[in-house]
Design brief:
The protein is α/β, with parallel strands linked by helices. Helix content is 36%, strand content 17%. It is built from ten helices and eleven strands. It has a six-stranded parallel beta sheet, sandwiched between helices. Strand 4 and strand 5 form a beta hairpin. The longest helix is centred in the N-terminal third of the chain and has 20 residues. It is elongated, with a radius of gyration of 19 Å.
């Protein structure tokens, strides 16, 4: 399964929340009650934690990096690592919000069987969820594309700091830094940044994040499919489902008769297929559903 962006990353149209959010949240609770529920999350669940999304109405237009750009252009790769060297710190400092914490609590209470997340921010893990499929990987691991050796992002950070002393301070002195999704930051002058190669084979290092144009590992797809196939309900939280690697799990549920609910600000690809749709803030809606449960 390839991570594919089928439309340009432009801000979504601003919508008004449903006027009957409480009633719709109660309908979500009714749909979940006594049933095995799997949650599929996207960037919208993490924006209250300070992590930007790609398509929110207030987001700037973005051009996400592709796998082909990363592996094919050393200059582009250096530019990416310089930005990541700053951006990953912001993601590491982010903390789960009430929506993440509530999903973890639902898992402990037996209301949720697992979470499939398109996010790379580790916030579900930090919140206490344990049955997690990180569909697009996480910011916390770096992989060698040649020998497959894996390292923690924290260890790589120390190496990059040693090669690029005071880089972060120099950049910060030029003004505010705009943080972008996927553990990235928006920078322009990165020509003097020095990269790190694999300690084992001098191969190319890459964050363990599935870029556009890259295959999602088969084991992750299988794990997500198993969760969906074992579920009685699939609830989408904070995703427009623009990326097909997430939307296909909705299609898998629908084709087998499993009801789908959607909690998101704005319309999604699944709206015409969903049993319940709620245009509202993830934290508010899930809190109302929890009260109804």
């Amino acid at each position: 399964m390839v991570r594919v962006r089928e439309t340009a990353w432009t801000p979504a149209e601003r919508t008004e929340p449903d006027p009957d959010v409480a009633e719709r949240a109660a309908a979500l609770a009714d749909l979940m009650r006594g049933r095995r529920t799997v949650i599929l999350t996207g960037a919208g669940i993490s924006t209250p934690s300070g992590i930007p999304d790609y398509r929110g109405p207030d987001s700037p237009g973005r051009t996400p990096m592709t796998f082909q750009q990363f592996v094919g252009d050393p200059g582009f790769r250096r530019h990416y690592w310089a930005r990541n060297h700053l951006g990953w710190r912001h993601m590491e400092a982010a903390r789960p919000n009430a929506a993440h914490l509530l999903l973890a609590d639902w898992e402990r209470r037996g209301l949720v069987n697992g979470v499939i997340t398109q996010n790379v921010d580790l916030l579900h893990l930090k919140a206490g969820s344990r049955q997690i499929v990180d569909l697009h990987g996480t910011y916390g691991v770096v992989t060698c594309l040649d020998c497959g050796q894996r390292r923690s992002r924290w260890a790589l950070h120390e190496d990059l700091e040693a090669l690029n002393p005071e880089f972060a301070q120099r950049v910060a002195s030029r003004g505010a830094i705009e943080v972008a999704p996927d553990a990235d930051a928006v920078l322009h002058d990165t020509a003097d940044f020095r990269m790190v190669d694999c300690h084992g084979c001098d191969g190319m290092l890459k964050p363990d994040i599935v870029y556009f144009g890259e295959n999602v590992p088969a084991a992750r797809v299988a794990a997500a499919n198993a969760l969906v196939d074992d579920a009685d309900v699939v609830v989408v939280v904070g995703s427009s489902l623009t990326v097909r690697s997430g939307y296909r799990f909705v299609r898998r549920a629908v084709t087998t008769g499993t009801p789908v609910a959607v909690v998101n600000r704005g319309r999604t690809r699944a709206h015409d297929e969903a049993t319940v749709t709620i245009d509202g803030d993830c934290v508010e809606v899930l809190g109302l559903a929890d009260a109804a449960l």
